[in-house]
Amino acid sequence: MTDPYKVLGVSPNVTDEELKKAYRDLAKKYHPDAYTNNPLADLAQDKMKQINEAYDTVQKMRANGSSSYSNNNSSNGYSSNTTPQYARIRELINSSRFTEADILLENVPLTERGAEWCFLKGAVQLQKGWMFEARKNFEQASRMDPNNGEYKAALNNLNNTTNPNYNSINTQQCNACDLCAGLACADCLCNCC
Questions:
Q1: What is the pTM of this model?
Q2: How many of the other CB atoms lie within 10 Å of CB of 140?
Q3: DSSP code of residue 111
Q4: Using a CB cutoff of 8 Å and minimum separation of 24, what contacts does 133-142 make?
Q5: Using one digit for the tens of pLDDT, what is the confidence trace for 110-158?
Q6: Helix (H) or strand (E) holding 137
Q7: Distance between alpha carbon 39 and the CA centroid of its chain, in Å?
């Protein structure tokens, strides 16, 4: 997330009343109800989401006695070093725009693909139903950043929702000879009929 004060259009030293007024003004301007049957409805919804997140973040910071914003903490309590590029990819994923997110991920140079890249790639793959690939990327993200609770939670959720024997597929149960023998038998049966 970008600086919540910038999103709200105020400085960090505004009073609580000024902050609330700025939030209300922006909420009136970008509320999705004002954009019903409008081609800008999606943009207004995204902007409203940003405004709500920014306001919540500032409220939490002020409740904790801080007025300064540090981008090293995400609102979900996990440590995150999200770059603006990865923040955009997260927005796309949250908006169910998986193809666009995947395109941006594939454009990241190989040398810059770290734990966050693996996690986001896994999230896209999971939404596409590619469980095996998603698991591999979640595992890689967890190995690269073992202290990140978000990566661990994603891997645990995936492991808990899929077949526990998914990773232990026995490839020796069926081989090419078995396939050919089965096809030969089927051909014989068809000729008999």
A1: 0.46
A2: 20
A3: G
A4: 134/158, 135/159, 135/162, 135/166, 135/167, 140/115, 141/115, 141/116, 142/115
A5: 888 898 899 999 999 988 888 999 999 999 999 998 888 888 888 888 8
A6: helix 131-144
A7: 25
